[in-house]
Design brief:
single chain, alpha+beta, Metallo-beta-lactamase, Chain A, 5-stranded mixed β-sheet, 33% strand, binds zinc ion, zinc, MBL fold metallo-hydrolase, metal-binding, metal ion binding, Metallo-B-lactamas
Amino acid sequence: MLSFTTGDFEIHNIEEWQGEFASPEQLFAGFDACEFAGFVEQIPHSFYRPESNSLYAFLQSWVIKAGDLTILYDTGAGNNKERPGIPVFGELNTPFLANLAAAGFKPEDIDVVICSHLHIDHVGWNTHLQSGHWVPTFPRARYLFSRIERTYWDPIQTDGPRPSATGAEVNTNVFEDSVQPILDAGQAQLVDDGHSVTPGVTVSVYPGHTPGHLVLHLDSKGDHALFVGDILHHPAQVFQPDWNSVYCEDSAAAQASRKKILALAADTNARLVPAHFGGAHFIWIERSGNGFIPCFERDA
Ligand SMILES: [Zn+2]
């Protein structure tokens, strides 16, 4: 089990699922084989399996102890959910809650849940099945949702921008079983860009992958960590930040947000913690010419 600290904050990795997820050709919009060949040897086996041409990915959550607050960032795919949009994330039966317990936390210990965005694999454990109903998994928690996301993904909303066809398909049933029950229970708090959760813990909106995607910033005693959700899915996107995933809703905004977060990580020496990274589950970013390169290990 992986833990690290950022200043005074303690951070624990909670694994839900891991596996070969897709080929680079399948995941990346704008994939270019020649370009990939130029940097693939710098990508560790824990992120790419050349023998099967597969990207290796995790579903995972992070528990952050910040002062008196216990925060859970992202909640994976969840168990027992019907997921026709991405069947590999449907009808799961993972030991996520046992993994949470092994890290020392019960569901009632969580004070704040933050969903980076409202995609299928970031909201699942918001709820669990009890007597045939989806109820909040974390009974005491305030759940922080991006205000923009809450409207965008709600299937009964008709005003404003609506999800792409791919987005709507991927997220079939997701709002209904993993977001609406939190709203109904009165446990949701809608937040905007720059919202402060507690001193040293803020969220900011980086649009593109989804329109209201939240990045979580930890700043303590001069140490920084950026929990960036799906702003990037894979280290290949550090070498080539113009490659979006096929799940990005707005291509130009997703590219711009990716470059902005890579620049921020490089310039503040922040640990970058994307949602789906294997290996150590985080990287650092260094500038290289006009671009960036990932740094997979660094002395603390
Ligand atoms: Zn996503």
